[in-house]
Write a structure and sequence with these properties.
Number of helices: 17
Helix content: 40-55%
Structural class: alpha+beta
Strand content: 25-35%
Largest sheet: 6 strands, antiparallel
Radius of gyration: 57 Å
Oligomer: single chain
Strand order of the largest sheet: 8-7-6-11-10-9
C-alpha cells in the first residue's frame, strides 16, 4: 500500500499536535482547578475547629511517624513544625487520664486494620489548658508491615461543656419537679376522693399507699388543734365561696409538727353546686421556724435595747458630765442635764452654736464640721456663760454612726471650773515659791559675799598679823610663842570653815566660772574633805541657762552626792549631766547597799528635796533602788525657765484667782 502523501502526513501530525495542545491546556485548567480546590479545602480545614493528620504506623507498634498535620493543631496549643520535629508530642498532649483507653484502641486497630479509629479524649496544651478532641481516622495498608492512617481531630470542648451543663440542668429540673415540700391535689367533692400529684405529699411526711386517697385521711393528718377550724373553713368555702387559702399544722408519722399552706379554687356545675376543688399545698415549716426565731430575736433585741437604754439613761443620769446628742444639723436631740439657769426644754431643738461665745464660735464650728463630715473625734475647751456665772468646760465630741453612716454627734462636756481654779492657785503658789526661792538664793549669795568680803578678809588679815608676831616671838624665844601658834591654827581653821559655809550657801564659782566648774569644785571638795570620789561627767553648753535653774541643778547634784556618801556605803558616786536640745538630764548612780523606796521616811529631806526641786522647774525625778542593788537617780529638766510660762498663765488667770 502506498503511503499517504507527505503533505497529508504533516497535516495529520499538525492535527494531532493541536489536539495534544488542546488536551494539555485542558489538563492545565483542570490542574489549576484541583489546586485551587485543594487550597480552599486546606484553608477551610485550617479555619474549622479541627485539624487533619496523616500518620505512618508499623503494625507491630514499634515505629510511628507524622507525615502530615494541619495548622488547626494550633487550636490545641501546638505548631505543625513542633509536631514534625517531635512526633511523640502527639502522645504527650493526651491527658494522662485518657492515655490508657487511647493505647488500648491503638493496639486493637493495629491488630485489625479494618477497625476504624474513633475516640473522644482530652488534649493538654503546653500552658496546661485542657480541651476535648474527637479523633476519627481509618487505615490504608501500604505494605505488609505498615499502615497509613488518614484522620481528623475536631475540637468538641464546647459540646462537652454544653453536655455537662445540660446534665446539671436536667438533674436540677428533676429535683425541682419532685419536691418533698410541694404538692398539687384535686378533690372530687362528689366522691370525697383526693387525687395527689405524688405519693410524697407534704401533708403526710411519707409515701402514701396510693395517689388517690379519701379526704378523711387528709383530716387525720391535720393537727388536732387545727382540725375543726380547717373543717369549718372548707365547709364555708364549698358552700358559698370560690377560693380557699389557709395555713395549718399537720403531724407526721415521726410526731414532728409541720406547717402547711393551702391554696385552692372551687369548680361548680351549671346549678352552682361545688363539684371539684383544685389546689396546691406546700410545707412552710422552715419559714414558720424562721419567723418564730425572728420574733424571738425581735423580743430579745427589744429587751436588750430596753436594757441598753436603761443603762444609758442611768449612766447619763449619774455622770457629772453634760452629755448630749446632736443630729446632722448640729441640733440638740438629747441632754442629760443643764447648767443653772437653763432647763432641758431650753436646750432641746436648738443648735449647739446658740450657746457658743463669740470668741469660740469659729473654732467650735470647725470642730463640729470635722466630726459630722469626716467622722473625727475632737476635743476642746470653752467657756459657757450661764445665769450664775461662767463654766470652764472640757468638750469631747465623737461621731454617732448608725448603719455605717454618720447620723450625728455625741458630746460629753466636763465642768473643769474647779480644776482650772486649783491650777491657777497652784500656778500662783509655784510662782510665789519660785520667787521666795530666788529671794533665798539671793540672800544666800549676799550672805556668802558678805562672809567672803567681810569676815573672811578680817580673819585673813588677823592671820597675817599673827604670822608677823610669830616671827618676832621666835627671835625672842618668847614663852607665849606656843599660845600664839595655837591661835594662828584656830584662825586658819576659821578661814577654811568660812569658805565651806560660803560653798554651802552658794558656791561663788557658779557666778564666776559657770555650772560645770562649780560641779568639779564640788567633786574636789568631797574628795579633800571626806576622801569620797564623785566622778563628774558633763556634756553640753549651760552658759545660757537661768542662774536660778543652774543653782537648782547644783543643789540636786550636791544633795544626791551627799546622800550617796552618807547612806549608801559606797566609796564613789557617778554623776552624769547632759543637755540635748531643750532638755537636761542628770543621773546620779552608786553601787551601794540601796534601800526600799516604800520605807523611806518623809523626814528624808534629801530625796524629797531632789523631787520637789525638779517638779518646781517643770521637770521630774525618778529614783530606782532596791536593797543590795545600789541606787540610781534620774532627773529631767526643761532648759527654758518655767517662770515665764507660769507668769503668762497667771496673767491669763489672774481675774479668776479667788
Amino acid at each position: 500500500m502506498d503511503s499517504p502523501p507527505l503533505e497529508e502526513q504533516i497535516a495529520q501530525l499538525e492535527r494531532q499536535l493541536s489536539d495534544a495542545k488542546s488536551r494539555f491546556s485542558k489538563l492545565q485548567c483542570e490542574n489549576r482547578d484541583l489546586t485551587a480546590q485543594l487550597s480552599s479545602l486546606r484553608n477551610l480545614a485550617n479555619n474549622l475547629p479541627c485539624f487533619l493528620f496523616q500518620t505512618l504506623n508499623k503494625i507491630d507498634g514499634t515505629e510511628f511517624s507524622m507525615t502530615y498535620v494541619g495548622s488547626g493543631i494550633q487550636r490545641f496549643g501546638y505548631t505543625e513544625q513542633a509536631i514534625y520535629d517531635q512526633p511523640d508530642l502527639m502522645i504527650e498532649m493526651i491527658h494522662p487520664d485518657d492515655r490508657e483507653s487511647y493505647f488500648a484502641l491503638v493496639d486493637a486497630c493495629l491488630n485489625d486494620a479494618s477497625m476504624p479509629f474513633a475516640i473522644d479524649m482530652r488534649l493538654v496544651s503546653p500552658s496546661g489548658d485542657v480541651r476535648w478532641g474527637r479523633v476519627r481516622s481509618s487505615a490504608v495498608r501500604i505494605s505488609d508491615d505498615f499502615l497509613q492512617y488518614n484522620g481528623i481531630c475536631i475540637d468538641i470542648t464546647e459540646e462537652k461543656l454544653t453536655a455537662a451543663r445540660l446534665s446539671e440542668s436536667e438533674s436540677q429540673l428533676r429535683l425541682a419537679l419532685t419536691p418533698r415540700d410541694f404538692g398539687a391535689f384535686i378533690w372530687d367533692l362528689t366522691t370525697d376522693l383526693v387525687t395527689l400529684n405524688s405519693s410524697l405529699f407534704p401533708a403526710f411526711g411519707r409515701p402514701t399507699d396510693s395517689e388517690v386517697i379519701h379526704v378523711s385521711e387528709f383530716f387525720t393528718a391535720v393537727h388536732p388543734d387545727d382540725r375543726q377550724r380547717v373543717r369549718e373553713v372548707l365547709e364555708r368555702v364549698i358552700a358559698s365561696e370560690n377560693a380557699f387559702e389557709d395555713q395549718f399544722r399537720v403531724v407526721w408519722p415521726d410526731e414532728s409538727i409541720h406547717y402547711l399552706s393551702d391554696r385552692a379554687v372551687v369548680q361548680r356545675d351549671a346549678s352552682g353546686k361545688a363539684v371539684l376543688m383544685c389546689g396546691v399545698c406546700w410545707d412552710i415549716t422552715p419559714l414558720e421556724q424562721a419567723r418564730g426565731e425572728l420574733e424571738n430575736k425581735v423580743v430579745e433585741k427589744s429587751v436588750e435595747l430596753e436594757a441598753i437604754s436603761a443603762r444609758w439613761q442611768a449612766i447619763s443620769d449619774c455622770s457629772p458630765d453634760f452629755i448630749m446628742t446632736l443630729d446632722r444639723d448640729g441640733v440638740t436631740r438629747y441632754i442629760n442635764r443643764t447648767a443653772p439657769g437653763l432647763t432641758v426644754e431650753d436646750v432641746l431643738g436648738r443648735s449647739m452654736m446658740d450657746f457658743a461665745t463669740p470668741e469660740d464660735a469659729e473654732a467650735i464650728t470647725e470642730h463640729m464640721r470635722a466630726t459630722l463630715e469626716n467622722g473625727e473625734m475632737r476635743s476642746w475647751e470653752t467657756k459657757f456663760p450661764h445665769g450664775d456665772g461662767i463654766l470652764d468646760l472640757l468638750v469631747r465630741c465623737s461621731p454617732l454612726v448608725i448603719d455605717g453612716e454618720i447620723q450625728g454627734a455625741v458630746i460629753a462636756s466636763t465642768d473643769v471650773s474647779e480644776l482650772r481654779k486649783m491650777q491657777r492657785r497652784q500656778a500662783h503658789d509655784e510662782q510665789l515659791l519660785r520667787e521666795l526661792w530666788q529671794l533665798q538664793e539671793k540672800e544666800r549669795q549676799l550672805t556668802a559675799l558678805e562672809i567672803h568680803d567681810g569676815f573672811v578678809q578680817y580673819v585673813v588679815g588677823a592671820q597675817f598679823a599673827f604670822d608677823a608676831v610669830r616671827y618676832r616671838l621666835q627671835d625672842e624665844q618668847h614663852p607665849a610663842l606656843e599660845d600664839q601658834a595655837k591661835g594662828l591654827e584656830m584662825l586658819r581653821s576659821a578661814i577654811t570653815e568660812a569658805r565651806r559655809t560660803i560653798s554651802r550657801l552658794r558656791p561663788l564659782v557658779i557666778d564666776d566660772d559657770g555650772l560645770v566648774e562649780a560641779l568639779h569644785y564640788l567633786a574636789a571638795e568631797e574628795s579633800d574633805r571626806y576622801e569620797f570620789d564623785a566622778a563628774i561627767d558633763c556634756t553640753g553648753d549651760y552658759e545660757d541657762l537661768d542662774p536660778l535653774l543652774m543653782g537648782a541643778m547644783f543643789r540636786i547634784v550636791q544633795e544626791g552626792v551627799s546622800n550617796v556618801r552618807r547612806h549608801s556605803g559606797a566609796a564613789a558616786a557617778r554623776v552624769k549631766v547632759s543637755r540635748e536640745g531643750d532638755r537636761i538630764a542628770i543621773e546620779i548612780q552608786d553601787d551601794g547597799k540601796g534601800f526600799d523606796l516604800s520605807k523611806v521616811s518623809n523626814e528624808r529631806f534629801g530625796v524629797r528635796g531632789i523631787i520637789e526641786r525638779a517638779r518646781l522647774f517643770g521637770g521630774s525625778a525618778a529614783i530606782d533602788s532596791a536593797p543590795g542593788k545600789g541606787t540610781r537617780i534620774q532627773v529631767k529638766l526643761p532648759t527654758l525657765a518655767r517662770q515665764t510660762e507660769l507668769h503668762a498663765l497667771l496673767q491669763t488667770m489672774a481675774p479668776n484667782l479667788d
